[in-house]
Amino acid sequence: MLKIKVHIVVLFLFFLFRDGLKVLDFFMKKKTDQINNKVNVACIPVGLHKPFPSNSLQLMVQAGAKGSTVNCMQISCLLGQIELEGRRPPIMLSGRSLPTFLPYDTTPRSDQCSGFVDGRFLTGVRPPEFFLHAMAGREGLVDTAVKTSRSGYLQRCLVKHLEGITVNYDLTVRDSDTSVLQFLHGEDRLDPIPFM
């Protein structure tokens, strides 16, 4: 009986601690976002060694040829808060986000255990920072692949369902069994090709 009570208390404390970490995570993310914004405002465009017209990277981004403002900030300022699934890197059962960190360390700067990376690509990042950034990058690749497969499947389903629909000579839209879907093509009988 005592063992069951101890297990219940341990589970209660676990869920209480987990929810407390979510609240702490929210406030820490808010604070690190403020720090990140201050650094970015001070760095771009005022803090650059070469200002906009003579800075090739800035010229390329502003012209829209390649890259984005986020890329410029990651190269010139800092990588900022790393997010995995919309949150800071999760803490494992050992109390660490990576094996190199101290257990249950929740400060934003303590060896980047919370995912705040103050390094930049111009001067290099430390191995834990690189690993955290690679984790977020991999998540982005997986999300892209999953979205591509889902949208491809949806398109295939739409094409398969619409492949029997035709516009006949009397300008009615009919299904493969000749049932009428629309009496006028597009409900206005206008051909959209001349307007393109």
Automatic annotation (TrEMBL):
It comes from Amphimedon queenslandica. InterPro entries: DNA-dir_RpoC_beta_prime, RNA_pol_Rpb1_4, RNA_pol_Rpb1_5, Rpb1_funnel_sf. GO terms for cellular component: RNA polymerase I complex. Coiled coil: none annotated. Residues 28-110, 124-189 form the RNA polymerase Rpb1 domain. Its EC number is 2.7.7.6. The keyword Nucleotidyltransferase applies. PANTHER family: DNA-DIRECTED RNA POLYMERASE, DNA-DIRECTED RNA POLYMERASE I SUBUNIT RPA1. Belongs to the RNA polymerase beta' chain family. It is an enzyme of class 2 (transferase). GO terms for biological process: DNA-templated transcription. This is DNA-directed RNA polymerase. The lineage of its organism: Eukaryota, Metazoa, Porifera, Demospongiae, Heteroscleromorpha.
